[in-house]
Amino acid sequence: MTASRPATPAQRKIKEAIDARDALATALTKAGIQLPAMDIRTPWAEESRYALVHLGLCSAPVAHASRK
């Protein structure tokens, strides 16, 4: 079964950001890096002109631990 194409431009932009987030997470995992949080954010609630991959916030100890 194939996934249907998102109907609106905003939905397509969110789908694009989700795909980018997933690809980035896969690449980081292969490199041995794990971020504490990764999600998708849109700057406007009504209609998303674009979506952002939010890489989350982490403490300094967590950031240093991810380098190991």
Automatic annotation (TrEMBL):
This is Uncharacterized protein.
